[in-house]
Design goal:
With 281 residues, the chain is α/β, with parallel strands linked by helices. It contains ten helices and eight strands. The protein has two domains: 169 residues, Rossmann fold; 103 residues, 6-phosphogluconate dehydrogenase C-terminal fold. Helix 6 crosses helix 9.
Length: 281
């Protein structure tokens, strides 16, 4: 049974995890963040039981959540490993998985377990003050267990935390995870940023007339650059392949316009509408 967790990084995801675990379980929480304001606020709200800025002694936790940007996860694990007790579960919340799973053996010790994690939720906002107790509710939570992590450890992690915070656990391998998130998350973010830049470049003054459609489509372009830089670099091969395929579809639509192919234009929009109607979002 998991009795105590430590959450390293009390930003949007880490802060939301702390709030959800405090609300829906009896697990004690140690919060770790270099921002003392986050720690003080989390303690004031009763979200964490203890807060520290730096780890300088043994971290008495059954599970440690690494809630740092993708590019910092491995280094963060490397730095925290010496302070973990035997049998500790280490998990992350990174948006890509293969790059992490490829490197984890270089830092993992024999007396610790690793479970890759990725909650399929978020916001264009960031930081502890944007965190939400129900951020994970009814959303998928990808689980990518390390090959040496016993099934019973994975199941305990899922039952004691993931299910209790309202998330839907999905066990998956790292390659498939990165393909799926490339399609439904990474490429859409790039396209959102592209549309924003495109509109600005084409006609700056046009943006002031933007309404619902433009606002909805470009909302996520306000996400943090540092985070998305890491995601793109760590999943670059898949993202590039998907963008090439997207370009082919866009060029096909251009050919419909060039040939005045009304039937194909209608079929294009009809197909998209029916697909979207079938998706439960």
């Amino acid at each position: 049974m998991i009795k105590k967790v430590s959450i390293i990084g009390l930003g949007l995801i880490g802060g939301s995890l702390a709030k959800a675990i405090k609300e829906y379980t009896n697990i004690k929480i140690i919060g770790v963040d270099i921002d003392e304001n986050y720690i003080h606020e989390a303690i004031r709200e009763g979200i964490i039981d203890k807060g520290i800025k730096n780890i300088q002694s043994t971290l008495d936790a059954d599970v440690v959540f690494i809630c740092s940007p993708v590019g910092e996860i491995i280094n963060c694990i490397k730095n925290v490993i010496p302070y973990l007790k035997d049998g500790c579960i280490i998990t992350d919340v990174g948006s890509t998985k293969k790059s992490i799973m490829d490197m984890i053996d270089k830092v993992l010790t024999q007396n610790t377990y690793f479970i890759g994690g990725h909650p399929m939720t978020g916001s264009e906002k960031s930081g502890f003050y944007a965190s939400d107790v129900n951020l994970f509710k009814d959303n998928s939570y990808f689980i990518v267990p390390h090959k040496n992590t016993p099934t019973e450890i994975v199941n305990m992690f899922i039952d004691d935390i993931i299910k209790k915070i309202g998330a839907k656990p999905v066990i998956i391998d790292d390659v498939l995870h990165d393909k799926i998130t490339g399609i439904i998350s990474h490429v859409p973010h790039i396209l959102s940023a592209t549309l924003t830049n495109f509109a600005y470049k084409e006609d700056l003054h046009a943006i002031k007339f933007a309404a619902g459609g433009f606002k909805d489509t470009t909302r996520i372009s306000m996400s943090q650059t540092e985070m998305w830089k890491d995601i793109v670099i760590s999943n670059k091969d898949i993202i590039r392949e998907l963008l090439v395929n997207y370009e082919k579809m866009l060029n096909e639509f251009i050919s419909f316009i060039d040939s005045n192919d009304i039937q194909s234009i209608c079929r294009f929009f009809d197909t998209a509408r029916e697909i979207r109607k079938s998706i439960s979002l």
